[in-house]
Inverse folding.
């Protein structure tokens, strides 16, 4: 979250992907960094122990949300 | 009679910031990927980037693995990613 | 500058039970009742600190929140500290400030660590800390309240709130308070504060982002190797092993046995590093093998940490009992590195 919002300060948008359990933390950090409504994509948890096909499903979800986050 | 309690919070905190303008068109844009170094983070980022490639003809222009999920990437990493690409994809989680 | 100009204040009824409730209502609590931070108590806490109350002691890089001398004093009052404990807390905050300790990730992570404070030197006796029986347990006001003040600062000042910004999967009881003292008179080697480079009369505090406590039992060993093999085995257990640092607290009984044949503290650290290891095959079998971490070690097997210097060894506990302790680091990588500061020595004053 910190990286996404810091990157945005350079004038280009970011798609931050966050697993569901980290949503409260993500929102809190975005609030702390002064962007309380910062949009980000949420996908199923976890990442580290999943297969490539399971990660592809998460990527599809991130992509679907990400188009709306990056482009208006 | 009253007593005075002192608030235990510190000082400082958020000042409102703005984010970058959104993109008008994703076609053919360059993607920067920033991994936190956790297991499979690179796979998730690349699979997501591949979908932007298939749908909009985007391409991966740069990839940085910051190798430490506990700290923000270095400012020079952010600058390099922003110089080489039009938007960033990064991920938080385990 | 008067306190009213530096911090918000709240007027409540002059009723101690009502004031405790008022603190609960405002979320100023770790779950246990706090001492209401009444202004005169805060002023008494500040009286022993030479620097202005607005002086910044530690910052939280992500929330941008800063812990000033005043905020530390308010939380110290709430934790139940006496004013003479305050320099220990101040030094601990200064030690943990900065990217090496990493106040954000170590308090936000699923790993659920607690800042473990290890105090060494004459201050232990001066303020009546407990370095003997139950050193990690209850019963001593200094140990309990200095450690608790650190937790209250993490929550009240840095806003690392369980379930919101603190994502600990399970946490551990040390997140209420983790503060121990080295037992100098039962330490066969030079005390920690001298090992760190401070004079005999200068005390130190070390801050370590520690995970849950592991008790190491051995009542049969009568030479260094049987004792240290048990500790190394705990350090190397498949659940615990990472490239992180370690804290080893030898009981006096174990320390006597280990030192009885002339082993130095450096020998102990080297032995523990050499023996706290797993084969690559074992690490692969449990899906914990990370080649780039192993490359950083440059060893045949996967060891705990990068070398003997990554293991802090101290002595504390009661006279009787073959029980030592190993405390693993929070991070599975090197997200936090333990930091030390002298106590009551202000470089800028």
């Amino acid at each position: 979250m910190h990286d996404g919002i810091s990157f945005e300060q350079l004038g280009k948008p970011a798609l931050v992907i966050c697993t569901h359990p980290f949503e409260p933390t993500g929102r809190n950090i975005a609030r702390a960094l002064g962007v309380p409504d910062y949009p980000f994509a949420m996908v199923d948890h976890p990442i580290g122990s999943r297969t490539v096909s399971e990660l592809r499903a998460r990527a599809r979800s991130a992509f679907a949300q990400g188009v709306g986050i990056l482009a208006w | 009679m009253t007593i005075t309690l002192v608030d235990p919070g510190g000082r400082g905190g958020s000042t409102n910031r703005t984010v970058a303008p959104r993109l008008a068109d994703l076609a053919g844009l360059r993607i920067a990927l920033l991994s936190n170094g956790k297991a499979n983070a690179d796979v998730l980022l690349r699979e997501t980037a591949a979908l932007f490639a298939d749908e909009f003809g985007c391409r991966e222009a740069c990839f940085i693995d910051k190798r430490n999920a506990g700290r923000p990437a270095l400012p020079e990493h952010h600058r390099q990613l922003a110089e080489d690409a039009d938007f960033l994809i990064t991920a938080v989680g385990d | 500058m008067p306190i009213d100009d530096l911090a918000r204040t709240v007027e409540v009824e002059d009723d101690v039970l009502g004031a405790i409730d008022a603190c609960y209502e405002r979320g100023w609590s770790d779950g246990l009742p706090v001492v209401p931070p009444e202004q005169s108590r805060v002023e008494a806490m500040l009286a022993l600190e030479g620097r202005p109350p607005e002086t910044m002691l530690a910052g939280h890089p992500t929330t941008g929140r800063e812990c000033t001398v005043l905020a530390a004093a308010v939380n110290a009052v709430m934790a139940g500290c006496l004013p003479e404990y305050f320099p220990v807390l101040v030094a601990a905050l200064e030690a943990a400030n900065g990217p090496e300790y990493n106040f954000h990730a170590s308090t936000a992570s699923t790993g659920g660590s607690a800042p473990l404070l290890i105090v060494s030197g004459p201050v232990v006796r001066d303020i009546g800390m407990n370095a003997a029986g139950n050193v990690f347990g209850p019963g001593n006001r200094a140990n309990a309240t200095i450690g608790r003040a650190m937790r209250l600062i993490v929550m009240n000042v840095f806003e690392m709130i369980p379930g919101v910004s603190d994502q600990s999967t399970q946490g551990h009881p040390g997140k209420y308070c983790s503060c121990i003292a080295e037992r100098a008179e039962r330490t066969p080697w030079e005390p920690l504060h001298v090992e760190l480079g401070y004079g005999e009369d200068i005390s130190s505090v070390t801050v370590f982002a520690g995970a849950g406590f592991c008790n190491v039992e051995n009542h049969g060993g009568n030479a260094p190797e049987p004792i240290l093999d048990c500790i190394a085995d705990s350090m190397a257990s498949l659940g615990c092993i990472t490239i992180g640092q370690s804290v080893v607290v030898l009981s006096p009984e174990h320390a006597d046995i280990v030192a009885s044949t002339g082993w130095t503290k450096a020998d102990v650290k080297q032995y523990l590093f050499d023996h706290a290891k797993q084969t690559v095959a074992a690490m692969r079998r449990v899906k914990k093998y990370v080649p780039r971490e192993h490359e950083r070690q440059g060893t045949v097997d996967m060891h705990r940490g990068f070398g003997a210097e990554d293991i802090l060894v101290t002595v504390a506990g009661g006279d009787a009992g073959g029980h030592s302790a190993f405390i693993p680091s929070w991070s599975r990588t090197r997200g936090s590195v333990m930091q030390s500061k002298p106590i009551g020595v202000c470089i800028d004053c």
